[in-house]
Amino acid sequence: xVWLGLAAIxxxxxxxxxxxxxxxxxxxxxxxxxAMLPTADAIAAIPVDDAPFKAMHxxxxxxxxxREMRKRLRWLELLQNESIQFIxxxxxxxxxAELAAYTLALWHFAQMRPxxxxxxxxxxxxxxxxxxxxxxxxxxxxxxxxxxTTRLIDIQAGCHPLLATPVRNSxxxxxxxxxxxxxxxxxxxxxxxxxxxxxxxxxxxxFCLAARAVIPQYxxx
Length: 221
Prior knowledge:
By secondary structure, the chain is an alpha+beta fold.
């Protein structure tokens, strides 16, 4: 029996050594997903008005599903806990406990993937909305851009979003280019970046840091 036990342990160690990196990589990713779930619960508990926060309401509706997901993945999280690392090593050597928990977690993950994906997207949406709202509060002088079907760029009193005290500049280019000249540190690069950033902001987030903006539907390079 002793030799059989030692042989089983040797086989288990060989299996662990062969699969160690794959298991660690995927288990770390699964742990990050588990850590995301209580964050979603905490954000969903924040009271908000009904109208503009659809993502918050969806997070609240999915709370029972997230609770179930955390319950299904708790064994993997427990075996990864550093406070019981010594015990988990012996459980792995004798019973391949981590590999079993990993396999079971993958099976549950496949079943609950839509819930995790939805939570990930909702948290990303809320995070992006907070970032946009913070930007607009720091820069109250902004406008909704008009989109031109021609090669027209018309930005009036535009500013660079990363400057604390920006100097506002205007530029109008109607189917033509511009040659920007001046001495060093005069603001040539900042002006060009201000134009490019405002076109990108207008086309992606729907606002420009300017008094008025007409931008073309062309890519920025």
